[in-house]
Amino acid sequence: xxxxxxxxxxxxxxxxxxxSGPTDPRLLLAIAMIACELSLVTAVALFWSTFSSSALISAxxxxxxxxxxxxxxxxxxxxDIVDAPAAAAIxxxxxxxxxxxxxxxxxxxxxxxxxxxxxxLLVTGGYAxxxxxxxxxxxxMIFSRRDFK
Length: 149
Prior knowledge:
This protein has 149 residues and is an all-alpha fold. 69% of the residues lie in helices and 0% in strands.
């Protein structure tokens, strides 16, 4: 419905320019991955908000974690960039601990009609579900121990 509505004003020459058509149903997969990513960002923000009463600090930590999560591949391959083994080990550790937000970005594959493995979508969706669950459980545990007196 929505994709058809968005595609109706596109002239035939414009339709031919799209590798997969302007109303490719795979666009919904990209939207679903964006929703998973936003859910994970929300869980991260909620987690940081349990530590601090300042919204600015929570937002800053969330933004920092989001940016670091976008560069997960760089953290994993830090040993190729720096000569310090300790820095490479810290980068690899951060790669395994921080959420990998770059994994949710399938927009380029959808737009250019590149294949997307269904297994990749299931694993990435499961990754988001597990990470969100862990963050929410940790948030509840931390928040239940706070003293508001």
